[in-house]
Every structure is written in structure tokens, then in C-alpha cells.
Amino acid sequence: MNSLKMVIVIHQSAHTQNALHYNEKRVEEGVATYFDSRNTLSVNPFMYDEKHRLKNLLDIEKVNNRVKKKCLHISFNPSAEDYQKLGDKTIRFEIRNMMEHLGYGNQPYFVYKHQDLERVHFHVVSTRIDRETGRKIKDNYEKEKLQRFVKSLEEKYQLTQKNNKEEPVFRFSPRSRNIKQNLENLFKHLNSLEEITSKEMYNEALKLFNVEIKKSGRGHIVLVTDGEGNPIRYPIRLSNFKERPEFYQTQKEQSENIKQDLKEYHNQKNQDAVLGYSLIRNLVKLIPRDYSKKRNQKLRIKRRKRGKQRRF
């Protein structure tokens, strides 16, 4: 992991409240901390509760009801080597530069420092609605802008520029490639988080990446959505995945496990029966033939005596 390059991802979160709550929850669980904020209603918004921080964003968003995807949710992921080289002070400075570069420099936003993975990373939550005009800030060519920004960081600080291993992609679109493999990477990532302790929490985490799991017949299907619950790709059966989400098990898998247990039980029972039969057969072989003949003669005599008694 140490040789992986820096990665910055814009997550397609439709609802600002969900993105903010995800990060606030991580703070409560002790795996994230408040890192930075800009252009907020108070000098230090982290002195107040989650509702106060959310109000900074929702007050701006409520003036524009036409835009559906109002949330801006970015993860800033330096490699372990790059994090050691940059440090918190430089990263805080460069996140501010990044927001300026994308056109959100004057927007209120909150930064959270996460330490629940193998490397330290940062999440930024803001709104796409301009605080001054009430219109959506243009997001054309965001991906290209981020690539240029990462390139400038690599050159400026001489950061790691090579990937020894392909970085997992957690952003899905109608044209995403290797979507099944990337979904498995997402499941593996979430399965490794000890903080997710229930199916409800798992589902909420999936929604941050516009992924949903729904019941279908006797099993489940995995859907990639547009953030509003509308599928943008054909559903994939959960049973087709090698790496499956925790807290989910299809009825087929459950029945197969039961069948396997019953099979092992019956196999053991049959083995015991065979061993018992073999033991009896071997014991019979040890009985002398003369003993068998004498025993049979005694049985015949007893039967005759019983017959005579019945006649009288």
C-alpha cells in the first residue's frame, strides 16, 4: 500500500445530510476527527452539534429546488509515504487549494480526517449550490480538473507517481468498466470496517456510493443507482459475487449450508452403521460352529416341549 499514488475521488452523493452524517458518525465512533472548515456561520462550527453544521449547507440548498444532486462529497487519499511527507498542515492548505481549483473556494465546507483504513484519508463535505447566486456551481470537467490538480501536487512535492497495484474504483456510472470487480472491491472494503455492526449501517454506507441491495425472489440483487434510487445499470445477482456483503446471505446459500450439514450427518451415520454391521459380522465369525449347532438343537427341543404343552 505504501507505494500507491495519491487519489482524489468525488463521490456521487445526492443528499448532503447523508454525506455529513456518515462523517459525523465516524467521529462518534472514534475513527475520524474534525480537521478543518471554511466560510461557515461560526468561527469554529465544531464547537456545536451536527445540526448546526448541517444548517450551514441546507440553508443555502433550500433556495434552489430544481437541482436534485446538491451535495459535494470528496475524499482526499494520500499514500502512506505521501502523508508522512506532507503532514496535516500542508494537506489542510492543499485541500483549500483544491476547493479553489474546483470553484468551491467561497463555499462553506467541512473536512474530516479518517483513520479507519490502512492509510489516513480525508473527506470534504460541501454543497454545489452557490451561496451567493443560489445557482448550481458548474461542474463541467471535474474529473479532468482533479487529475490536473493531483499532477501538480506530485510535481510540487515530488510525490509517488506510480501504482504497483490498480487502485479500487468506488465511483460508478452508466459507462463504468469492470463494474462487478469494483463492486466486489467496495464490498471487501466495507466488510473490513469493524465499525459497521448492522445491516442498516451497511446499507447506509452503500448508499454513499449509489449502491443498493434489494430483495428479489429468493435472493438479492445489487443495483447501481443515480443517487435517487433509479437504476443506471442492469442489476447483478448477489449470488454471482465471490466477495459478498456482510450481513447478507441468500436463501440458496442457507439451504446449501443446511444440506451440507445434513449430508455430513448422514455420512457419519452411515459410516457408524457400516462399522456396526462389520463388527457384528466379524464377531459371528469368531463363534465356533459346534456352538452354533448345539444352540440350534436346544432351540428345537424347546419348541417341541412348548408344542406338547399346548396340546394338553
Topology of this protein?
Elements: E1 7-11, H1 16-28, E2 32-38, H2 50-61, E3 71-77, H3 80-102, E4 109-114, E5 121-127, H4 142-157, H5 179-191, H6 199-207, E6 211-216, E7 219-224, E8 236-237, H7 251-286, H8 289-311
Antiparallel strand pairs: 1-3, 2-4, 3-5, 4-5, 6-7, 7-8
Question: Total number of β-strand segments?
Answer: 8
**H/E series:** EHEHEHEEHHHEEEHH
- In the CATH scheme, the class of the largest domain would be Alpha Beta
Shape verdict: elongated
Structural class: alpha+beta
CATH architecture field of the largest domain: 2-Layer Sandwich
Largest sheet: 5 strands, antiparallel
**Span between termini:** 100 Å
The CATH topology of the largest domain is what? BirA Bifunctional Protein, domain 2
Q: What is the typical, i.e. mean, pLDDT?
A: 81
**Quaternary structure of the protein:** single chain
The unreliable regions are none
Helix content: 40-55%
How many independent structural domains?
3
Strand proportion, as a percent range, falls in 5-15%
State the helix count.
Answer: 8
Rg over CA atoms, rounded to whole Å, is 34 Å
Taking strands numbered 1, 2, ... along the chain, how are they ordered across the largest sheet? Answer: 1-3-5-4-2
